[in-house]
Amino acid sequence: MMRFFCTALLLSILCGCATSTIESRKEERAEVYASLSEADRKSVDQGEVRVGMSRDAVYISWGEPDQVMNSGNSDGVVETWLYHGSTLERRHRWGVREVFDQRGRNYLITTYDPEYVSRQYVRAEISFSDGKVRSWKTLARPLEGEPGRF
After folding, report:
1. Total domains, the chain
2. pLDDT of 120 above 80
3. 149, part of any domain
4. How many other C-beta atoms lie within 10 A of the C-beta of residue 45?
């Protein structure tokens, strides 16, 4: 029940913050969208990214990246856009509580009270060379019980 409540709360918060859509970004950059190739417009309309797309096409399709990194190699400068996702992580909390019976005797009992916290992770990565998508990948949501998790 608690998990359902936390998930519902998180979804309502995220939905309230999600104001940028493909349609709103197409309107924002109407001239850029009109100048895209037919294949790029089709990809953008479906929220997809393809190798060879421009930064503007990727922005319209996926929105503003959460993080931008620059690096270099023998081909020149590589710009990498990272998109973050979030997931609820369950942390196990054990405790001890003192209780009293009807005769006034006290006992210590073990309690289990899980806690749910939001955890961010990188959900997608796009690399650009010369302003065009060189490679892209989506990454899986971390699994419960993954090393380093509670």
Report:
1. 1
2. yes
3. no
4. 14
